[in-house]
Amino acid sequence: MTRLVLLGPPGAGKGTQAKLLSDRLGVPAISTGDIFRANVAAETDLGTTVKEYLDAGKYVPDSVTNAMVRDRLQQPDAAGGFILDGYPRTTDQVRELDDMLVETGGKLEHVLEITADTDELVRRLSRRAVEQGRSDDTEDVIRTRQQVYLEQTAPLVEVYSERGLLRSVDGLGEISDVTERLVEALDLPDA
Ligand code: ADP
């Protein structure tokens, strides 16, 4: 049973590593950003609600995000564990996730922080802007997202560190090297 949260600034590689860890650990990777973007693309009610926040690089209101994650974690495939990529991102979301886990009788095992310096983050996101054309990868919005991360999400490192759950992993270098570092940090019995 692996219940894992990935933390790290925009561009740190959470999405990439979440997918690789998902294959490795056999639990689903749940990316709030991917779910929001899919809803925007499909023009659902949720997509209509969140589009302006995504485009501006602002966080979607906690009430909306919490309800969405609560619903996703109740899906059968998450019963055996999960990797959360992009949630929680605020202290309110931390409390909400705690409540969800109490209700299902489970607890969080690991919080892995992927680190990278700001210059590298901006370089990666600018490159992704060209490759993928994401609406929030423009220079202004990238800067806003880094700022929002520092203000609202960076404090979560301390919160989880105090609980003894946090390990920090260097996000620089080859993708496969970063995956190995993450797996090592999980300290799995049979890894
Ligand atoms: P990145 O980590 O590169 O910023 P994501 O794909 O994780 O990108 O998220 C993209 C956008 O989706 C965020 O800028 C925000 O608008 C929204 N979002 C994702 N997760 C959350 C969350 N937990 N709370 C609020 N908004 C979120």
UniProtKB/TrEMBL annotation:
Keywords: ATP-binding, Cytoplasm, Kinase, Nucleotide biosynthesis, Nucleotide-binding, Transferase. Its main location: cytoplasm. It comes from the Bacteria. GO terms for molecular function: AMP kinase activity. Pathway: Purine metabolism; AMP biosynthesis via salvage pathway; AMP from ADP: step 1/1. AMP binds at T32, R37, K58, Y59, V60, G86, Y87, P88, R89, Q93, R134, R145. InterPro entries: Adenylat/UMP-CMP_kin (IPR000850), Adenylat_kinase_CS (IPR033690), P-loop_NTPase (IPR027417). ATP binds at G11, A12, G13, K14, G15, T16, R128, G173. Transmembrane segments: none annotated. Catalyzes the reversible transfer of the terminal phosphate group between ATP and AMP. Plays an important role in cellular energy homeostasis and in adenine nucleotide metabolism. Belongs to the adenylate kinase family. Monomer. Consists of three domains, a large central CORE domain and two small peripheral domains, NMPbind and LID, which undergo movements during catalysis. The LID domain closes over the site of phosphoryl transfer upon ATP binding. Assembling and dissambling the active center during each catalytic cycle provides an effective means to prevent ATP hydrolysis. This is Adenylate kinase.
